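Summary for the steering committee. The consortium agreed at its last meeting that each partner would contribute one worked example illustrating the joint modelling workflow. Our contribution is presented below. We chose a case with several input lines so that the handling of multiple components could be demonstrated. No manual editing was applied between input and output; the record is shown as generated.
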Amino acid sequence: MPRPRVLPYIILGLLNKNGTMSGKDMISEFKTDISEFWTVSHSQLYPELQRMVDEKQIKVAEDVEVKDRKVINYVIEAKGQETLKRWLAEPITLKNDELTSLKLYCISDQRAPILQQILKQCLALHQQKVVHLKARKELLFGDESAIKGNYGHYLILSRAIERESDYVNWLQSKIN
Amino acid sequence: MPRPRVLPYIILGLLNKNGTMSGKDMISEFKTDISEFWTVSHSQLYPELQRMVDEKQIKVAEDVEVKDRKVINYVIEAKGQETLKRWLAEPITLKNDELTSLKLYCISDQRAPILQQILKQCLALHQQKVVHLKARKELLFGDESAIKGNYGHYLILSRAIERESDYVNWLQSKIN
DNA sequence: GAACGCATGTAAATCGTTACATGATTCA
DNA sequence: TGAATCATGTAACGATTTACATGCGTTC
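What follows is the complete predicted structure of the assembly.
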């Protein structure tokens, strides 16, 4: 069972959000706005675009505009919009939570129901994380004398708890 | 230029911290204490252990103890300790910062100079991140009317700023 | 019109995961 | 003794990165 792919969905998300885009445009947006969370090289992007055209997820935009250059512009197809919708609606799990920011990035409309759905699932997941991490800290460092001999471990565990707790608070503040 | 490897250093870190360990022991510690930050499959671990024995970074521990099972125990060698030391001392950059938690995990002693060194570099890096993210937010959403049409983007950018700011505060609290 | 830049494209090498395999130990 | 379990080991595939390649357009 191959690892689930990310790139095709980001491509769909960008095209759905921005309309017509070239590969170059996508690379540019990846770098400026998405590199904080995810990166991709152009040697992955271009073959993927071809594959997605074959799959009818996207199509080449016959722009009357700028065809001076060898730029290829793409637009999303109906099938692609459904694929994107299904991806956004997938349940959030420990395994795929690293993609949640990317999913949110693809949602332009503040009132989209899927947005609240994602935030709520994310909240539940990270609340569990906090519980788990706190239990782990209590187990390992409940006796504070254990901190001395494993200070680095203690540090990152403490930090993880703070980080997750902050995230939980933020998520709650964004949920209706 | 191949991507820098992580696994060998974690192996060295664990052996340096715990003394004698088998592959199974490492897998176990990966799962319980490190899975929050990093994962590895056993099919990666075992060949890597063999490679590191060949390189004299570690060696098989001739335990008189439990040799009933086919368990193979390892200990770190002097060369491995130097390799580990060099890794911990590498400058922290945007590229390798995702490994910082793993590095901290390998440092048992609260008073180790390398600990403060890492925390300070990490602080500088994330302070820069905050500056960059805030500038980006000002540029994109300084005009609040822009939020409506790109709400997801606004959300994750805002969250990133809070997350990084919290991290900066935490780092400062841990620095002498 | 020759050289360079740039969007796109291709190849090779590496990394990492899943699935499967081995051989020893335990236990019924 | 034979089945099951377990630590270790191997194979195959997909994903990702680096390096290199193509070919159009601009510019000097």
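Strands of chain A lie at 21-22, 58-60, 73-76. The two ends of chain A are 38 Å apart (CA to CA).
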